[in-house]
Amino acid sequence: xxxxxxxxxxxxxxxxxxxxxxxxxxxxxxxxxxxxxxxxxxxxxxxxxxxxxxxxxxxxxxxxxxxxxxxxxxxxxxxxxxxx
Length: 84
Prior knowledge:
Structural class: alpha+beta
Strand order of the largest sheet: 1-4-3
Number of helices: 3
Radius of gyration: 19 Å
Shape: flat
Helix content: 40-55%
Oligomer: single chain
Number of domains: 1
């Protein structure tokens, strides 16, 4: 995680990253649904700021809708096969 000495620097970095990410999303033919990105105070590094890119796309929402869950029995069988 990158940290910045000022909120202004974090915002500048965030804007650059957002533009880059949105460009890549559009190049692959996907659509941005929501942009919840923000720059804020770092709780892990006191006195510093962090930028968080949180962009939701149509493909991400579809993947969540179509998620079938995790098959724990299949996972347990796999673990037994490898002796973990």
